Amino acid sequence: MSDATLNAIKDNPDDFAVQVSDQIESFIVSVTEVAKGDDPDSAVPYLLLELSQLLLAGGRLGAHEDFVPVERYEPDIGPEPDVDEMRLKLAALLDPVDVYSEVFDPYEPRTAPVACRISDDLADVITDLRHGMAHYGAGRVSEALWWWQFSYLSNWGPTASAALRALQSLVAHVRLDTPLDSLDGLDTDSPADVDDGLLEKQAGAVMAAEIGVPLGMQPER
């Protein structure tokens, strides 16, 4: 399908491209708002919800037949927007539960877990999504769909899925009243003399005060 045909149906709310772009734009706007830190108590459950909705769009892209862009070479979209400020704000907002353990490929035998950061994941996902939005905004709909599909399979899909599992785990620890185990070894940027018990205590306090209350849990007296 040509870009001219795709552009002709962009205003149709039932169109696949419109639905996917709307979900992606909503995610970008929502995470940008969360990063401002105006409502820190709701950050984790809200990010859980937003990632879940984004991955619905990703699943539709992954299940769809391959999109083929009209142009042989990808058009230049200009400089990529800087996400470092957002990354740092999210890291401060989520500290000290920002770091988690992840296995990149569950089908790769004996793959060792590595330390990841939710803040890095969200920033990387938004970078990929914005790249496609630049094409979409310029009217190159087939290029945008190709990019979102390709990057979903190669990068932002696995990254968003990993961050979603981490956030879901945090919510589960709170709702099921199961404190986090020691965080020793997860944060590769931490100095060697950081007290593990302090990290665990800090993480538990964040989960109870900033995550538990928005989820309806009563604080201890």
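(the above was protein one; protein two follows)
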Amino acid sequence: MTQEAESKSARVVVADDQTVVREGIVMLLGLLPGIEVVGAAGDGEEAVALVAGLAPDVVLMDLRMPRCDGVEATRRIRAEHPGTQVVVLTTFADDESLFPALAAGARGYLTKDAGGDEIVRAVHSVLSGDAGLSPGIQRRLLERLAQPEPGPATPSEPPDGLTAREMEVLLLIAEGLSNPEIARRLHVSTATVKTHINNLFTKTGLKDRAQAVRYAYAKGLVRPPAG
């Protein structure tokens, strides 16, 4: 971490859908040196809007939120506002939460048992160009890298009656792509992508993109990235 990053207060937005938790994080951050809370969001959509209006240095991002989950909000923020970094602050440290968030562009990942000093270090680490990962998350990544790499996930038949095209859309959702990006990748309209998503959600009983990512991992359709 550079001396400049340590001495300069980082402008931070907090995103968490639970009011008590969100207010508690804001209160904690207000007591920490080197942190200035400039906004708080109750879901991913609000977080993206606050970043557009406030241009914070860092967003502390919960993952499981209504309207727009933390992975999708992270992807949008990093694509639309590359000057803002994202540090995930969540209850969950499982692969289905960790790897999609990192793939979407999060530079840090902490669980909510992190102390104030750890949050400050993570925020200033990502501003210095480093990763802001808790020790537990670092161990999880090392464990994953140490595991033998499985073969490609190619089930003999798509689950739940999904068509080949619906499978393609599902896998691209798991990569963190937006509807317009999926449309460009598949050379179809955004409306067609929405139709495929509605169909696969109906067939699988899924309700949002976060559930779709977990479904893809649970069915062995995708595996976490190796790096």
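Reviewer note on protein two: Residues 190-204 form the longest helix (15 residues).
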